[in-house]
Amino acid sequence: MGLNDDHKTTIALIIVSLALALPALAASIAMACYICHDSRRVANWITETATPNVTTTATISHGDSVIGLDQMTIESYMKVVLGESKRLPGHEDAACCICLAEYDVKEIVRCIPECRHCFHAECIDEWLKMKGTCPVCRNSPSPARVDL
């Protein structure tokens, strides 16, 4: 009988362990999915709260002045709605380097024509209003660069 009781105790321990481990594992997976899915919203919130309410800025570097672009110039750049393949017209990046969120199906991206770097439309629109240069290669995508 002692061996039978040991067997029952072992089975009971396994059942209790699984009863504790499986919900913990499921909760961990659910939390990871929530964090990944919610990262875009958090990144947008951080971008919105960190962005000053300024329409144009100037950066002086080695005798050049780069000023933010006007809305008409920004709107002239190509916008694309991503399909199932999430293929970008320019470089094949998996994430927007401004907000760091991965691209999703049916999101709107805007591409800078000179360098063909693409970003979420709302991210690059705000960036170009303030900076006037590509966030990746720092090339000026328009005649916004003026020698001083």
Give me the secondary-structure topology.
Layout (H helix, E strand, L loop, with lengths): L1 H49 L7 E4 L2 E4 L3 H5 L3 E3 L26 E4 L6 E3 H10 L14 E3 L1
Antiparallel strand pairs: 1-2, 2-6, 3-4, 4-5
How would you characterize this protein structure?
- It is an enzyme of class 2 (transferase).
- This is RING-type E3 ubiquitin transferase.
- It is found in: Membrane.
- Its EC number is 2.3.2.27.
- Its main location: membrane.
- The protein is α+β, with helices and mostly antiparallel strands and 148 residues long.
- The chain folds into 2 domains: 1-50; 58-147, Zinc/RING finger domain, C3HC4 (zinc finger) (Herpes Virus-1), CATH 3.30.40.
- It has helices at 2-50, 71-75, 121-130; strands at 58-61, 64-67, 79-81, 108-111, 118-120, 145-147.
- The strands form 2 sheets. The protein has a 3-stranded antiparallel beta sheet, with no helix packed on it.
- It starts with a helix and ends with a strand.
- The relative contact order is 0.14.
- The model is unreliable at 51-63 and 144-148 (pLDDT under 50).
